[in-house]
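Hey, quick one: can you model this chain's 3D structure?
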Amino acid sequence: MKKITYLVSVAVIGAALAACNDANVNLSDKEKALKEVVKPYVENTVIATYNAMASEGLALLADVEAIQEAVKNEQDYTAKMAAAGESWRRMRHHWEQSEAFLYGPADKHYIDPHIDSWPLDYNEMNALLTDTARMAKIEEDGGAYVGDKLGYALKGFHAAEYLLFKEGQPHECNLTSAEAAYLVGIVEDLVQQAIILEDCWAGGVNEEKKALITDEEGESMSWGENYAEYFMNLTHPDWKTYQAVAEQIVAGCVEIAGEVADLKMGNPYRSSNKEEQEYIESPYSYTSTIDFADNIISIKNSYCGAKAGDAAIADYIKKQDAELNSKVLAAIEESIALIEKIKDFETKAQGDADVKAAIDKVSELEALLDDEVMPLLSK
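Sure thing. Here's the predicted structure for all 379 residues.
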């Protein structure tokens, strides 16, 4: 029986390989070239970024739990507040480097607005912090209450930022026990959403992460999706060719370039009233320009590949139009450099010449991707 089973297994594997080879043979040269891009993009750009984000989130959760314990025991937690701030920055770094792929689960399951809505609703936030009944529920139910009962403007990165930072520095150590519980609830919910993103793309996560998205009754928050499979094997109705996958990747880059230029930098630069002037993405940690640069790095990783040697869309475009590819690569690097040149964005963005220069360059990058790269992919 063992011998027969072995022979059957060999036959099945051989048939699968033959089918795979036949499928590859039937692809056009263009589809073969774009297929080479997909696996490294999925594994080394998307999944690697979400894995790092979720892992840093676990560290942040441990840090804020330590703060909560110190508050309960009336201990000094100055160092713990600083450590949590650094963990928040690291987690956010990976999130901002994911914003060129906000399609798919981040959009479908509303994870993007869930964890990154801004600006905060200051009035509602202050009302919540003084509402003893709701704060008591947060202390009791933690992340479950934060995730299910609070609006987008009261959770996610910026709600945690509000409690962790003040004017770019660690916040004073004056949290009440309810506020400390709220901070833990915010981060618990934030980490769960990060794990769900990784799970949706990778088709599963490790046991530690799996436990965090499983409730006491054993119900999982997983959507049971596998976007890696959808992209690599074209098993989703939205992406039936590798050209469609490549166009989706570039469309994600176009989307975030436009958001950085027109909204994230553009609104504060053009501001004419107080509300618009406060349209700052990270106004408590003072990491806005780091966020913007990471957004462009997200485009770079998607277009060029996150790891040296990865096949990438840039390789395909270079073969079709080397001059266009060089323009895109230059616009990416110049956008990052000009963003990093900006000083005091949180307080001096309005009318600033450095902000204007960065906006113009990112807009140029957006136009190159949308008006020239996308049509070239569709030929």
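One thing worth noting: The chain has 19 helices and two strands.
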